[in-house]
Design goal:
With about 230 residues, the chain is α+β, with helices and mostly antiparallel strands. It contains six helices and nine strands. A six-stranded antiparallel beta sheet has the order 1-2-3-4-5-6, with helices on one face. Strands 7-8-9 form a three-stranded antiparallel beta sheet, with no helix packed on it.
């Protein structure tokens, strides 16, 4: 069997750009992070130990940014399978993001018990670092961990949480692309020869990065079925 290959549709930023950008953000966060400690900037200059705390606080924020801003670390790839393409979020990416996320509470806990902190500012900083990745990426990634869409020359196959199905193209009468108010494709509706129909909710499957590729594949390979 021919092994599956990957086709990159959204590469990561170049290493030079990523490192430079993260360094600038890190320096900016370093200046801000001193505010979470219950000491003045003059006292921080006298006690260099607080620089370690500022470094750790900035590191927690940088990790949060790396999780949310996926273009820095994680390319978007389409798996090329026999007869077509497989669209889904890479599970390895989610596992790496979860591992990165686990380091954030460890860092924040160490800072809290090792240093005198301004509780209001510390919990605001910690809340941003802890809650943002969950709301922006991790919760959706976990909910859609098993979701995928496979388009081939013979079948359409998908899984969306508890909904799934495999459909032969020979059984499909026509296909309609459902768009939003901005004319962007969000769903695929299949009409079958037995007069039944089904909607594949792409907007519930965390496949936004693949919309253009999915649209291109359907309009080219399923052109005879589109209406």
């Amino acid at each position: 069997m021919r092994p599956m290959m990957g086709k990159i549709v959204r590469p990561t930023y170049s290493a030079e750009f990523s490192v430079g950008l993260l360094l600038l953000i890190f320096i900016f966060l370093g200046f801000l992070s001193h505010q979470i400690f219950d000491v003045s900037i003059h006292d921080i200059k006298k006690d260099h130990n607080h620089y370690v705390g500022m470094f750790l606080a900035s590191s927690a924020a940088i990790i949060m940014i790396l999780i949310v801003w996926e273009e820095i670390l994680f390319p978007v790839k389409i798996k090329v399978v026999d007869g077509g393409l497989l669209f889904r979020n890479h599970r390895t990416k989610l596992l790496v993001q979860l591992a990165m996320y686990c380091s954030i509470p460890l860092i924040l806990t160490y800072i809290y018990f090792e240093y005198d902190v301004n509780h209001v500012r510390f919990f605001i900083w910690g809340g941003i670092c802890m809650i943002t990745p969950i709301l922006e990426k991790l919760l959706s990634g976990i909910n859609n961990y098993r979701d995928f869409l496979k388009l081939t020359s013979k079948k359409i196959e998908y899984r969306n949480n508890n909904k799934e199905g495999t459909f032969d193209l020979d059984d499909i009468d026509h296909i309609t692309l459902i768009r939003d108010e901005k004319n962007f494709m969000r769903k695929i509706q299949l009409f079958f020869k037995n007069n039944s129909s089904l909607i594949i909710d792409l907007d519930e499957m965390e496949l936004e990065a693949f919309y253009d590729s999915i649209h291109k594949y359907i309009t080219i390979r399923y052109k005879h079925l589109l209406k």
